[in-house]
Amino acid sequence: MSDPLSKRRLKLWIRLLGVTRAAEGQLREFLRVRHDTTLPRFDVMAALYRRREGVTMSELSRMLLVSNGNATAVVDRLEKDGLARRTPSETDRRTVFVSLTPEGLAAFESFAADHEAEVNRIFAGLTEQDIDLLTEILKRMGGPK
Amino acid sequence: MSDPLSKRRLKLWIRLLGVTRAAEGQLREFLRVRHDTTLPRFDVMAALYRRREGVTMSELSRMLLVSNGNATAVVDRLEKDGLARRTPSETDRRTVFVSLTPEGLAAFESFAADHEAEVNRIFAGLTEQDIDLLTEILKRMGGPK
DNA sequence: GTTTAAAATTTCAAGCTTGAAATGATTTTT
DNA sequence: AAAAATCATTTCAAGCTTGAAATTTTAAAC
């Protein structure tokens, strides 16, 4: 009665998508209600926080696995709200560096611990051993290099 | 040097999101290039295929973990293209059943095997044992009930 | 050195997605 | 049975997202 490998991989993918979407939904709700922000904005700010010295638009979209146009749009909105800023490169006039403003930095720091706690709550069922196993398998499943 | 559990859960979530987005990107590209369709349309059609007798809008959005408004929009477009249809309930005038038209059914059947093969290609690195392990853990991680 | 190709970003139209509010229908309470 | 609460769906505005085309700049080829 066991499915062939191909069918099992398909079912696994559907389950993986389900878990991810459910968690995304909870995080989105959490960010909206508690911090009046959105997941895409949080993702961009997290990337800019990780690379405090600034990133190019291309790097940003590669980091987040979104299109260039998308990165432009989200950064536009963050910039309009004074949370991010663009700085043209001195050496290459095609390139711009994006970074958090002081306000953006402060805002992100006010999200970050709370966000981690929420992720923790969502995945409270995972033991150290689960994490070891999952990490190992996910590494082999690819994702961003 | 090992992170506390909380940090490890956070990193795992980021990795999980990365794997899922990368796979979604590949599938989206595949559906666009080879079958001239999109992931959301495919997801809706797959749900309607699984429940050939028809589903209500609410069931549909619960199945796919999307908002009601979203389900309405995608079904609208499928209906406009003649791939899905709405049938009002006889017994409850609030309810509509959505189902695939014959054209929609044929279209989905022409995607399905190919889609499964593509998922298989993307997750070729997963052995039977990986799948057992992952399935077990993902079940405990929640997702749609 | 001029043409050609490649790269970084933005713009744009179309489609996706959400959450809130509106509409209409059914069920529950009083 | 009227009032109130609940339910199913749609509508709407705002934001998200993509992929393709356009712009501008740099690098490569000739």
TrEMBL record, chains A, B:
SMART domains: HTH_MARR
Sequence ranges assigned to domain HTH marR-type in this UniProt record: 9-143
A GO term for molecular function: DNA-binding transcription factor activity
Record keyword Amino-acid biosynthesis present: no
GO biological process terms on file: response to stress
Top-rank taxon, per record: Bacteria
One Pfam family recorded for the sequence: MarR_2
Residues passing through the membrane, by range: none
Cross-referenced SUPFAM superfamilies: Winged helix' DNA-binding domain
Record keywords, A-Z: Plasmid
Protein's recorded name: Transcriptional regulator, MarR family
